[in-house]
Amino acid sequence: MAVASAAFSSTQHEVLPMDPDETGNHKNLLIVFHTQGVKNERMAQAVFEGATDDSIGGVFVRMRRALDADAEDLLWADGVIFGTPENFGYMSGALKDFFDRTFYRCEGKTEGLPIAIFIGCGNDGTGALNAIRRITPGYRFREVAEPVIVRGELDEVGLDACRELGMTLAAGLEMGLF
């Protein structure tokens, strides 16, 4: 489905379907990510491209940097994709800050919310993944896709995996699988 409007800036992207369901029967996908470099920015953009693919309709997609996202964004969402670099064997401080700022406002309101994760790293990414997986059970999220972990340099294989992750979550929401 073609997109009616898109607002792009360095901190946020939002895309709405051209013909949203008149019944209001649409789903909302939130992408929350952090980056200080090019690699995770490109990964987040690829996730966004997959989620807004023309073959998917009825899904509103909102992408926010972790420091700009808030509890209202999380409560708006029917699904979330989290992205982070691995810093010193851990998720970025900005993504951890997002979790810290939203937890109590969202406590008890996100049970079963489908999530997915992407990580750009120089090592193996398991430290960041484990850190996220230690926090997300408190929200009672449900991880519905294998995480995408791009080790080393980002290439087309990694970008394609990110696009597929975005498309998978958006299509799953559209079809009511999640």
Record keyword descriptors for this entry.
single chain; 178 residues; 5 helices; 38% helix; globular
Task: Describe this entry's structure for a reader.
The chain is α/β, with parallel strands linked by helices and 178 residues long. The chain has one domain: Flavodoxin domain (Rossmann fold), CATH 3.40.50. It is 38% helix and 26% strand. The protein has helices at residues 38-51, 71-76, 93-106, 126-139, 156-174, and strands spanning 3-8, 12-17, 27-33, 59-65, 79-85, 114-121, 142-143, 148-151. Strands 1, 2, 3, 4, 5, 6, 7 and 8 form an eight-stranded mixed sheet that branches. Helix 1 (38-51) runs parallel beside helix 5 (156-174) and helix 3 (93-106) packs parallel to helix 4. The longest helix is centred in the C-terminal third of the chain and has 19 residues, at 156-174. It is globular, with a radius of gyration of 15 Å. Residues 1-11 and 17-21 have low confidence and may be disordered.
User: Count of helices?
Assistant: 5
Q: pLDDT under 50 segments (min length 5)?
A: 1-11, 17-21
Summing up helix and strand content along with how strands pair, one would put the structural category as: alpha/beta
String of helices and strands: EEEHEHEHEHEEH
Q: Estimate the global geometry from the Cα principal axes.
A: globular
As a percent range, the share of helical residues equals: 25-40%
Number of strands: 8
In CATH terms, what is the fold-level topology? Rossmann fold
Provide the CATH superfamily.
Flavodoxin domain
Number of folding domains?
A: 1
The CATH architecture comes to 3-Layer(aba) Sandwich
